[in-house]
């Protein structure tokens, strides 16, 4: 076919006879057999010792093709080894000169499947493949596919659109993987979104593939960062910030100094990574991080955009928020005010920078967001007063109570708290983490007291996937409370159901929780919840699927109609079946 002709076309350029030449010889000759023999002699393997061996192979029925093929394979292996060796020996310019000459000679045969690996190997070892050859490879889908990543990098670095096409499906996959974890049907307070260590996360498929595609190429690294920034701006999806940090740390693990030394965030990210691993910012690392922030020089403020993106990574926010809650508890014990704790102020400064990432990159105004004094003088002392309320209540419970009736748990929330959660992003983030903290401590009283404040929060943060993922996990610790009407009414009617109809993700999280805990919920409540959570025409596939799973589980739990209705008396006495004790 025409493909064959194109494939072997390169042979003529090199003065090697091909099928066309044989056809020509045979068409113009009088004695075909003699002509074939002569063609074989001229174009066979030129080894005197073979003259006698070949007829011997013929006798054994070994086709000449098979023999030539095995010789060829052997030679190709030797050649590939030789090319790899040349790439490492002698003076730099000499070895590349040799490889370039070899490429010049062999490139015309790049379409021949048998020769292609050799040509590809030569290109792979050339730090700069001639532009003309790169263009030819790029223009041919199959050649481009067959290229080593080392050659593709040379193509990509001058073709942002092509590189974007390669990277884009990986970024989609990454976001999808994150969302699958957040919506996973396994709910547990032990294993959650933040459980895997940074080192483990960096072993993920997407991070590894991107690391491999970038190699040591700073230009490609910058392109990926540009993609991540653009996507973060377009979608506000914070998982892109996680990938930004994971990619840098993956290159750090491989000690790719070509890139790490030119990324101004490297040392900051490395230090923060250690904090994320411990889920706590200790004093020594706090000093180090502060040093980086204070060290941003005039004229280099743009680095704040990158640092803010690193701090906007949910894993960083999680670490900063957990550390803040721990600091507040310590301050209660030490009778110290928040404004007197430099460590706490630094945590807030980093939270502000992280939470301000989108605005900073969007506005291109690179300065640290101003911290509102009220946050430190009013909001945090308010949280500390909640901690004190808990201590007081616990102590009161333990005191002998002859002289007084039982002290009720404070049930109202200061209006200021609700207002802060609505109007101040950092206050809202810390407030939500405080609620996660009391839930994890199984502190039902405190949970029910603060829950009403979550219905309206800054930018609906209380209905964000990460918070709901963590909350549903922690609520499994309060599973016994689900039998109580009052608890369920506060949690479902008072919180979840207020947003279900307008927020698909909340609908999903409630269904996840019920799939896990339905057996703990009082039957009457469960029935009304099942009605309230029924999918509408607008509901997505995920909601319908979860709802069906839940309905099936509840169907199995219902007593069968036979058990409910009066059984008519039968002539024969029914054998009694012992009911299993563990119902």
UniProtKB/TrEMBL annotation:
The GO biological-process annotations, alphabetized, read as: negative regulation of transcription elongation by RNA polymerase II
Highest taxon in the source lineage: Eukaryota
Pfam families, per the entry? COBRA1 (PF06209)
Q: Biased-composition ranges for Pro residues?
A: 570-583
UniProt region (Disordered), positions on chain:
557-583
Q: Which residues cross the membrane?
A: none
Which InterPro entries does the entry mention?
A: COBRA1 (IPR010405)
Gene Ontology annotations for the cellular component aspect, listed alphabetically? NELF complex
Q: Please give the name of this protein.
A: NELFB factor
According to its UniProt entry, this protein's organism is Aegithalos caudatus (Long-tailed tit)
